[in-house]
Write a structure and sequence with these properties.
About 30% of the residues lie in helices and about 15% in strands. It is built from 10 helices and 10 strands. Bound molecules: flavin mononucleotide (FMN) and iron/sulfur cluster (2 copies).
Length: about 250
């Protein structure tokens, strides 16, 4: 079983590749918390890095997963370059549930948060050049049930950056904001938000407090009406993994 969380498709594309190669079922991580996974022989977790740490929703979901202690559990973490504290944080969470993390690897792909800092994720497409080789290694390792955690040497610094206060700061800074003058009430953001955190009021999008800062809404809005970090989302900076369609990310 391959469980994924993805805002703009990078993690979904990787999860799909693994599931195709291993013949595993693919399921959104958020839905998997309601499943009995105790008899699954192999469980893969595929998700992005946020602020050198686990995305808040990944942390919450993993701590509710119903996994048996004998499963081979692995994680593939997508990132713009550095996964920081992700491996350690995930290992700690799983251990609390009596499960040992067997294998992890990272895949560097375009950084979807770049638009929040005035950069363009679409200028980072060359990162995909190295993905096939990395995926070949990961899939062969998983099929051999290889045990190895690939982690960052600077995890201590990352651990500091992942402290709850830092995480709260990141969420506060990056939390999306709607420009009501641009919003046409098309509903795309409502349907793409994995947290069900956006609703329409008087045909205008309204973002609630339960945001995991995946930036899916910012990248998907056809009117560029949702900004982050005080910046408007320019059309040319909106990003989605080239193999992933909008409907693949919209579940409702
Ligand atoms: C809020 C936020 C924080 C991020 N922080 C990091 C980071 O600390 N290190 C990194 O390498 N990439 C970081 N990224 C980039 C994402 O991890 C990367 O683009 C990922 O592949 C997105 O996955 P998705 O397309 O499946 O949502 C961040 C992205 C977001 C939205
Ligand atoms: S996707 Fe954009 S235009 Fe459509 S409802 Fe949301 S904010 Fe408004
Ligand atoms: S409001 Fe936007 S950024 Fe926050 S969880 Fe929903 S889609 Fe992601």
């Amino acid at each position: 079983m391959i469980l994924y969380f993805s805002g703009t498709g990078n993690s979904l594309a990787i999860a799909r590749k693994i599931a195709e190669a291993t013949n595993d079922q693919l399921m959104p991580l958020i839905e998997a918390v309601q499943q009995d996974l105790t008899n699954e022989k192999r469980i893969g977790l595929v998700f992005p890095t946020y602020d050198f740490n686990l995305p808040p929703i990944v942390r919450t979901s993993v701590s509710q997963l119903n996994i048996g202690p004998k499963s081979y559990v692995f994680a593939v973490i997508t990132c713009g370059g550095q996964t920081g504290n992700c491996v350690w944080a995930l290992r700690r969470l799983l251990r609390k549930r009596g499960v040992e993390l067997a294998y992890t690897h990272k895949v560097s792909v375009p950084d979807n948060s770049a638009l929040a800092f005035g950069r363009n994720p679409n200028n980072q497409m060359s990162k995909f050049d190295r993905v096939p080789e990395r995926m070949e290694q990961i899939i062969s390792d998983i099929q051999a049930q290889h045990h190895e955690l690939h982690y960052a040497w600077w995890s201590f610094l990352s651990w500091i950056m992942g402290l709850p206060a830092m995480e709260k700061g990141m969420i506060r800074t990056l939390r999306p904001k709607v420009n009501p003058d641009k919003c046409i009430g098309c509903d795309t953001c409502v349907r793409i938000c994995p947290m069900e955190n956006i609703r329409l009021t008087d045909k205008k999008a309204l973002i609630g407090d339960n945001c995991t800062v995946c930036l899916a809404c910012v990248h998907a809005c056809p009117q560029q009406a949702i900004g982050t970090n005080g910046r408007e989302a320019l059309k040319e900076r909106q990003y989605r993994h080239p193999d992933i369609k909008l409907k693949d990310l919209i579940k409702r």
